[in-house]
Write a structure and sequence with these properties.
Blueprint (H helix, E strand, L loop, with lengths): L2 H17 L2 H8 L3 H15 L4 E3 L4 E3 L1 H26 L5 E7 L1 H18 L3 E7 L6 H4 L3 E6 L8 E8 L1 E5 L1 H7 L13 E2 L10 E5 L2 E5 L11 H9 L4 E5 H10 L3 E2 L5 E2 L2 E7 L7 H17 L7
Parallel strand pairs: 3-4, 3-5, 8-11
Antiparallel strand pairs: 1-2, 5-14, 6-14, 7-11, 7-12, 9-10, 9-13
Helix pairs in contact: 1-2, 1-3, 1-4, 2-3
């Protein structure tokens, strides 16, 4: 098999693994399914082992296929980076795939994208908005922006971008009808609007001047994994919400929402950029990381709690 054909076979195999089907891979590589099937069979014959188990619903990698996939991705990534290094010559170009949380993407990131694309006319950006963490390599994501009090250990590279403050807030109507909590433990008698929390969920942390108060609010009668929906619920007088400060700043200014238990604050969330470890970072990825780091530092500067 010629070197060029071997690289094509690697790309086809990686796409089959990503799509989970011959048909899905064929659409991506723009070939007919029969050609993809023959190329995969030829690759398995050359290697002398089965890489994929065929089922009626989906194709699954064998143990050998999983090992080969890791090597194949590394080889293709190195090849792509070598070609980019020669063609880009330090000029950002190409398609950048970015994953971000839905609310942050809509409210903060999209308004910044235009400035980035104006500064780099040879770059295109594909934005995927999803709150769940995804496999960056499998999904072909260059950079994932995530907001969390802490990140789970992983093999990804992490760049801390800023601190996103949160606030406890409620409508004046709710506080008038249910009373205003004066101490953290008073939250036990209130509806606290949070995303669904499992039995192993960490306590709600409230901080002031280095002191931390941990409270476990009772399960609210209304839960939702959408921050915009929790915002609407707070405005409707359904309870006390824990929301990003930037998202409710206008409500706090107008008085439609009121801060609760100030000057205590919920633990801040850290905005981070996650990206796969590479032997050489493409210019368009580096340009985006530097751009988003500078802009988010202006929007969410690090500051003392309290």
């Amino acid at each position: 098999m010629a070197s060029r054909d071997r690289f094509e076979a690697l790309r086809t195999f990686v796409e089959v693994a990503r799509a989970g089907s011959i048909a899905g891979a064929a659409r991506t590589v723009r070939r007919v399914p029969s050609a993809v099937s023959r190329e995969l069979a030829a690759l398995e014959a050359r290697l002398g082992t089965e890489l994929v188990q065929r089922t009626t619903r989906r194709m699954q990698l064998t143990a050998a296929g999983e090992r080969y996939l890791t090597h194949a991705r590394g080889i293709l990534e190195a090849l792509d980076e070598a070609e980019r290094d020669l063609t880009e010559q330090g000029v950002p170009r190409g398609t950048l795939r970015v994953s971000a949380p839905v609310l942050f993407g809509q409210q903060v990131l999209v308004p910044l994208v235009n400035d980035f694309l104006r500064a780099h006319p040879a770059v295109s950006l594909e934005l995927v908005l999803e709150d769940a963490m995804v496999d960056l390599v499998e999904r072909g994501v260059d950079v994932a922006l995530r907001i969390a009090t802490r990140l789970e250990p992983s093999t990804l590279m992490v760049r801390r971008l800023g601190v996103q403050p949160y606030v406890l807030c409620a409508s004046p109507t709710y506080l008038r009808e249910q009373g205003t909590p004066r101490r953290p433990r008073d939250l036990a008698s209130h509806e606290v609007l949070l995303p669904p929390r499992g039995p192993a969920a960490r306590p709600l942390e409230l901080r002031q001047a280095g002191r931390v108060h941990e409270v476990r609010p009772p399960k609210s009668r209304f839960q939702c994994d959408s921050l915009p929906a929790l915002h609407v619920a707070a405005l409707s007088g359904m309870g006390i919400a824990v929301l990003p400060e930037y998202f409710v700043a206008k409500d706090l200014e107008s008085g439609t929402l009121v801060r609760v238990l100030a000057p205590l604050r919920p633990a801040p969330r850290f905005l981070s950029a996650l990206y796969p470890r590479r032997t050489a970072m493409p210019a368009h990825v580096r340009a985006f990381l530097d751009f988003i780091a500078a802009r988010t530092a202006e929007l969410f500067p690090a500051r003392e709690e309290g």
